[in-house]
Design brief:
With 90 residues, this protein is of the alpha+beta class. It has a single domain, classed as Nuclear Transport Factor 2, Chain: A, CATH 3.10.450. 30% of the residues lie in helices and 38% in strands. Strands 1, 2, 3, 4 and 5 form a five-stranded antiparallel β-sheet that branches. β1 and β2 form a beta hairpin. The longest helix has 27 residues. The mean pLDDT is 85.
Amino acid sequence: MAYDPTKDKVLKTWRISVTDKETAIVSVASYNNGDPKIAISTTEIEKENGEMVHGRIKRWGWGEALKLREALDEAIEIMDKLAAGKKSTV
């Protein structure tokens, strides 16, 4: 079965500022009402001309790692609540 973007539901997205011109993206998504999954995407980088491009995730410092942990903790809470809701309806 081919990927169908209309079945892909993003439940929440976090943007983590790595530098003043670089942002990492963390999201929780569910495809075709399946189990939610966490995605840590490539970073968005603002070039000198203002254009936004995607780059790979690089090494992060302590502050950025804490922001990532906060986003992941919240993402896991969302996933736990969704899993608990599915179990109560079975």
